[in-house]
């Protein structure tokens, strides 16, 4: 009786397989060597996001520069703009010399503002830095995903979901898992809906995506679960256990590491 649900998958098979497919697409299109050699699990801590400034604009710029660094896109020409001024993600043709992702690339200071990517931010999210980090990572993944050589799994209908997984691939899975759902509570004076981000993956899908990242990067549970919301920790451990059993799917993803070694 007590083992009745032990073998029940943590997600529907179509969902978990799609997440593996998006990781395979990400590795094929966005520098598998950078993923395996340079990408880190970004934690929502002061060590990863040090410093503080008094203005909303300054805080947004400070956070986004760190997001760019961890995503290995510091050389991309970008400009952070209040979303009330910049609400549409119309990307100009990027002029990037060298690899799309490069942890050592330098910023091209000669790029004019007109050719910079306009990165919108929500001033209300300054009070919710984890949500702001996830939003910036999602925007970065949106721009990056547009430069893929192959279309993503699922097609255009699932574009926002794909780019959330891509952001997890870039190292920001913890922020996506923790901000996928926000409890509204009953205290109107404490809850600010404008500080939250729009999420497309469910909590469980975001956690599973994080777990794929951790298994590929061989990150032990003890380095991740303390940073997850309490109610997600059990699901995360189950996801890791299940993913480790999917050796055929993992072999496809790890093949990219061998191809770039």
Compute the number of structural domains: 1
Indicate the overall shape: globular
How can the largest sheet be summarized? 2 strands, parallel
Amount of helix? 40-55%
Number of strands: 2
Give the overall pLDDT as a whole number: 86
Sheet with the most strands: spatial strand order: 1-2
Strand content: under 5%
* Low-confidence sequence ranges: 182-196
H/E element sequence: HHHEEHHHHH
Number of helices: 8
Structural class: mainly alpha
Give the terminus-to-terminus CA distance.
48 Å
The oligomeric state is single chain
Whole-angstrom Rg: 18 Å
Question: What does this 3D model show about the protein?
Answer:
By secondary structure, this protein is mostly helical. The chain has one domain (13-260). Helix content is 45%, strand content 4%. It is built from 8 helices and 2 strands; from the N terminus they run H-H-H-E-E-H-H-H-H-H. The protein has a two-stranded parallel sheet. The longest helix is centred in the middle third of the chain and has 21 residues, at 159-179. Mean pLDDT is 86; it is low at 182-196.
Brief synopsis:
With 261 residues, the chain is mainly α. 45% of the residues lie in helices and 4% in strands.
Reconstruct the topology from this structure.
Elements: H1 13-29, H2 32-37, H3 56-70, E1 78-82, E2 117-121, H4 129-145, H5 159-179, H6 203-217, H7 233-245, H8 247-260
Parallel strand pairs: 1-2
Helix pairs in contact: 1-5, 1-6, 1-8, 3-4, 4-5, 5-6, 6-7
Name a few traits of the molecule.
single chain, 261 residues, mainly alpha, two-stranded parallel ribbon, 4% strand, globular
């Amino acid at each position: 009786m007590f083992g009745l649900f032990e073998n029940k998958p943590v997600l529907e098979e179509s969902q978990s397989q799609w997440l593996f497919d998006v990781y395979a697409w990400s590795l094929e299109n966005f520098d598998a060597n950078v993923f395996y050699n340079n990408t880190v699990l970004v934690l929502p801590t002061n060590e990863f996001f040090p410093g503080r400034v008094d203005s909303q604009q300054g805080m947004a710029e400070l956070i986004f520069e760190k997001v760019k660094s961890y995503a290995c896109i510091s050389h991309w020409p970008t400009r952070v703009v209040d979303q009330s001024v910049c609400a549409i993600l119309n990307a100009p043709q990027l002029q990037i010399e060298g690899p799309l992702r490069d942890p050592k690339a330098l910023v091209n200071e000669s790029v004019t503002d007109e050719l910079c990517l306009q990165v919108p931010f929500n001033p209300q999210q300054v009070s919710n830095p984890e949500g702001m980090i996830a939003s910036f990572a999602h925007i970065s993944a949106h721009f990056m995903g547009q430069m893929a050589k192959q279309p993503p799994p699922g097609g255009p209908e699932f574009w926002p979901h794909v780019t959330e997984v891509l952001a997890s691939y870039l190292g920001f899975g913890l922020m996506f898992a923790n901000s996928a759902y926000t409890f509204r509570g009953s205290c109107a004076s404490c809850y600010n809906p404008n500080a939250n981000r729009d999420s497309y993956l469910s909590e469980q899908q975001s956690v599973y995506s994080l777990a794929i990242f951790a298994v590929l990067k061989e990150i032990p549970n003890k380095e991740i679960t303390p940073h997850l919301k309490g109610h997600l920790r059990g699901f995360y451990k189950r996801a890791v256990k299940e993913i480790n059993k999917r050796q055929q799917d993992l072999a496809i993803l790890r093949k990219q590491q061998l191809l770039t070694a």
